[in-house]
Amino acid sequence: MHRVMTAMQHLFDRHGTAYDRYTHRVFGGLHACALADAVRAAPPGGAVLDVGAGPGRLAVALASRRADLTVHAIDISLDMIEVARRHAQDAGVADRTHIEVADVAAVPLADDSVDVVISTASFHHWRDVSGAARELTRVTRPGGRIWIYDLRLAPWRRLAAAVGAPITRTPAGLLFTRAELPNNLRSPTRD
Ligand SMILES: C[S@@+](CC[C@H](N)C(=O)[O-])C[C@H]1O[C@@H](n2cnc3c(N)ncnc32)[C@H](O)[C@@H]1O
User: What's the CATH code of the domain at 100?
Assistant: First the structure.
């Protein structure tokens, strides 16, 4: 399993354009689900973070739909980020999208700076799940929402163990699950 994930990440690191061409149809339904959630939950003038955004189609769709939002998108692969930046330019939303290379375990955003976090089909690649849980709860303001969408077979128990609390899971189509992280977890240094 680990070897498969490493090979997949190698693909993401070098072939963002090919990934974009062939996979956006597969994830279209999942993106529609995450887009609807983010559009509904983000307050006027709010900020949304897409984690493991890949070629950025979801982040760009969100920025196009909600001109009032600031949309942050991070991905560990520079190749993906370059494709995402091109999409943002082409869609005319580059001024409202901040697209950066970053690991989910080290998000380059301030505490409590985001209203909604979304992430599609990326979680099962995360090596440092504890670091991810810590960072996503750190950057999300109290009362904000954190939704992670991934395969039903993704390691959800690891995520719940990392969070140290149950996570709410609902189906998101036949193959996918939507998990909501509890957002009342704060490190001792922040209390
Ligand atoms: C299957 S792709 C999904 C991309 C996009 N979210 C989508 O729905 O098409 C998984 C993405 O997660 C990214 N990724 C993997 N590990 C990551 C990490 N630790 N932090 C941020 N991004 C990561 C990969 O580089 C890849 O772009």
Answer: 3.40.50.150
